């Protein structure tokens, strides 16, 4: 049995049945990381403590109270891990070692996970291409000359390369969804509030959320069951409604297909070809599919304003004091925020409120919204971002991410599901979107589509 090829759910069952030990599973994944080091997905490896933790878990044994018992995991390098270097992808924090875990990381430990190391990110998680001056670029396991996406690119690549069984991530403008699409894994941006963001530094906003990543929908649901619980210190936390382990039949499901999100995004034809085949499969199995989109005019611009305001508030003073500590694209984003007025920010917040109301209306008429996750297939790893898409120029590093950023503004759960490969063998993900709070239903529908397509089982050819 090659434990690295098992999904997290399968490995958890094997560990529970004592078909392998936690030490064996940990050693196998550490060996896999070493064998596929060129992917550069897991950084700040914590092998010694991981093996000690594995031995401790073997002595303790599995229990129902440990749903992640023995599972080797990667933690995004923007999420604090007690005693383990956390750089946020920034040279300013290259040797930073937090004293405590982020809330959801602590929950993962308590549930029995074995943390192998941190997964690579762009600087301060800014953008959908995981490269920074501390660790360099993460490469796509399906083509090492291509990007793994971002900002949870190290997490997605580590999952695809079978280096970890589960990974966490976060998503403001697509950081769980885009890398999942690029790496043929599953990434869920939960409804805001489902995964609490504790701590004074985390603003209670519908823009950013932590979330789960895995190779299958079952794996993502498993991790969500651990990290997606209310926290008494987070007053806007909201529990998942419904059972996340139940498949949702397609027959009679009202599905909206928005290939360009109502004309808001350009999409490369090779991406639409792959997605069109998957959408047709839903219709063949009884879904009622029509082309429709929420009204999204101005969503990308409002997102840009709110993001820039957050960046300036977080790093404006640091940039002014030490400009060399920041890369070009995050410095641009911070400076964009510096030029905003309070009026600009309030108007953007008002626009997001209107978009969230539009989403609530739209999902009274549709059960699911389907759209591209990324408007291009994985691009060359040397690029900062694609400069044109379907012949349309992309003005800045956020422009090409609009398929995800405009959905963020709706305040709803969104999932990237493996949907197939281009003719050149590059992964493409389908963005599946549901009403706020309908995370369980979204997972159930994704589970059904996953079983129909079988794409999640396609692994990259690596040593």
UniProtKB/TrEMBL annotation:
Coiled-coil boundaries: none
InterPro entries, A to Z: Amidase, Amidase_CS, Amidase_dom, AS_sf
Any Pfam family the entry gives: Amidase
UniProt-listed PROSITE patterns: AMIDASES
Domain Amidase: 24-443
Name this protein carries in UniProt: Amidase family protein
